[in-house]
Amino acid sequence: AFAAPPPPPPPPPMPPPPAPSGPTDGKEGLYENLEVPPGFVAPPPPPPPP
């Protein structure tokens, strides 16, 4: 009788997605992770260029 073949090795874990460097999605997420005091108002966005 032949020995059973060894089981295949498990696939390597998927690498985590690279973290975005800087605000790449506009104003979304700019102030989400900042601890701001109550009543904090974000500065208005700069006017669009002509």
Q: Radius of gyration over alpha carbons?
A: 25 Å
- Distance between the first and last residues' Cα: 82 Å
- The portion of residues forming beta strands comes to under 5%
Provide the helix percentage: under 10%
Got a strand count? Answer: 0
Kindly name the structural category: little secondary structure
Q: Characterize the main sheet.
A: none
Q: What form results from the Cα inertia axes? A: elongated
Mean model confidence by pLDDT: 69
Count, helices: 0
Q: Uncertain runs with pLDDT below 50, 5 residues or more?
A: none
Oligomeric nature of the chains: single chain
Describe the structure.
- The chain has 50 residues and is low in regular secondary structure.
- It has no helices and no strands.
